[in-house]
Every structure is written in structure tokens, then in C-alpha cells.
Amino acid sequence: MQDFSSRPSTPQLESDLNRESWRVLGIMTEFVEGFEQLSRICPAVSIFGSARTSAGHPWFIKAEKVARLLSDAGFSVISGGGPGIMEAANRGAFAGPSPSVGLNIALPHEQTANRFQDISLQYRHFFARKVMFIKYAAAYVVLPGGFGTLDEMAECLTLVQTGKTRKIPIILVETDFWTGLLDWFRNSLCETGTIDREDLRLIKVIDEPEDIVKAIFDHYETRGFEPSAQEKEILLEL
After folding, report:
1. What is the pLDDT of residues 75-97, one digit of tens each?
2. Which bin fits 81, alpha (ψ -120 to 50), beta or left (φ > 0)?
């Protein structure tokens, strides 16, 4: 077996290693700032959806209403901080009494920070941003969206399924949009054994804003919103 540890050093290799080392410090900064800013916003709900949904679209209006109801009920609302559904979520929360949080990401296109944020954090790394979406969320509310929305939904489902985060409500909004995907989960993933049918119970599909808020309260009816001591230990390993 070749010993790559004996690879001779070159100026370019040293330069690359130095860049990676400084990058680690940048990643640490993103985590530390997120922990410091968001540790005081609980309980919170993370809301996801397409950046391409225009104001006035029924999905935009619904997201704004959900966020306002959550804010009025005492939940901080966390979104990706950009346009579309993210802006709708921040708008609704910003109009209410609870904090509106935007986790903004630097992208070549699409991502422009909306102005409805009480707390605005900037990220260069998706993985650091993902931790903040999950670590402080008492629930996930997922409206129609594209690859980014699907990525966040799958991330949360995986972490809850594997016990790497606490069990929280994962609510999909707009039945017609999600039916095809859920049918594929049942007919392909369950049938081939790549997931258990019990895993589908991690997902709720709810369309009415008032029912979404009620489902979150119902989930925590016999306990508080604050993570238990055991859950706090799990979240430390997130």
C-alpha cells in the first residue's frame, strides 16, 4: 500500500493547507455566532419553501399567515432569509411579537436577504446553516419548494429517524404538491425496504394554518417546548 504521508511538500500544497486551516476558523465563527444569537430564541419553528414563489401567490400568503400565527403564539420563526417563501415567513413573524430570524446564505444567484429580519445571520457554508435550522427548532414546516427545500426536509427526516436529533413535528403544507412524493415513499421506498412504513409517521401533511399551529401544540401537550436533559445531550452531537 502506498504511503501518502511521505508525499513531498510543495509551495502549492503548503498554500492549499494554509487556506484550509483558515477556512476551519471561518466555519467555527459561523457556528459560534449562530449559537450565541439563537440560544435565546426558543421555542422556534423553522419554515422552508421555494425562493421563487412570488408575493401574492397562494403559497406565499399561506406561509405568511402560518408565520404570523406562530409569532402570535410565542414562537420565533426561522427562515432562510431570502425571497419567496422565506420572505413570507419572515414577513409574518416580523409583524408579530416574536423574533423573525433569517439564516442567509451566500449564493451566486437567487439569495438576496429580505428586510423582515430581527436577527440576520450570514453563512458561506450550507452545513453550518443546516445545524442552526434544526438545533433550535421545535418543529419544521415545509411548503412547496425545490432542491434546497427537499434537502432540508430530508436532512431533518434523517436526523429524527436515526435519533441524532429530538423528535419534532415535520409538517408538509399543500397536499396536492406533496402527494406524488409521498406516494413514491410508500410505493418505492417502503416496498423495497429502504425505509420502514413506520418512518412515514414522522411526516404530517396539514394545509390550514390554524391546524398547523394546533398540531405543534398538540405534539408538546404533555411536555414543555424546552429540550429535556437527554435531548440537550443529543443536540450537542448534532
Report:
1. 999 999 999 999 999 999 999 99
2. left
- In this structure, what CATH number is given to the domain that contains residue 85? 3.40.50.450
Residue 21 has pLDDT above 90, yes or no: no
Give me the mean pLDDT over the 96-116 stretch.
87
- Looking at the DSSP bridge assignments, the partners of residue 101 are 78, 119
- Residue 81's CB: how many other CB atoms inside 10 A? 27
| DSSP letter string, the chain | ---GGGPPP-HHHHHHHHHHHHHHHHHHHHHHHHHHHHTTS-SEEEEE--TTPPTTSHHHHHHHHHHHHHHHTT-EEEE-SSSTHHHHHHHHHHTSSSPEEEEEE--SSS----S--SEEEEES-HHHHHHHHHHT-SEEEE-S--HHHHHHHHHHHHHHHTTSS----EEE--HHHHHHHHHHIIIIIIHHTSS-GGGGGGEEE--SHHHHHHHHHHHTTTS-SSPPHHHHHHHHT-
Range of the domain at 137: 17-236
Residue 98: per-residue pLDDT: 97
3, part of any domain: no
The one-letter code for the residue type at 121 is L
Is residue 109 in a domain? yes
As for how many domains the chain has, the answer is 1
What's the pLDDT at 107?
78
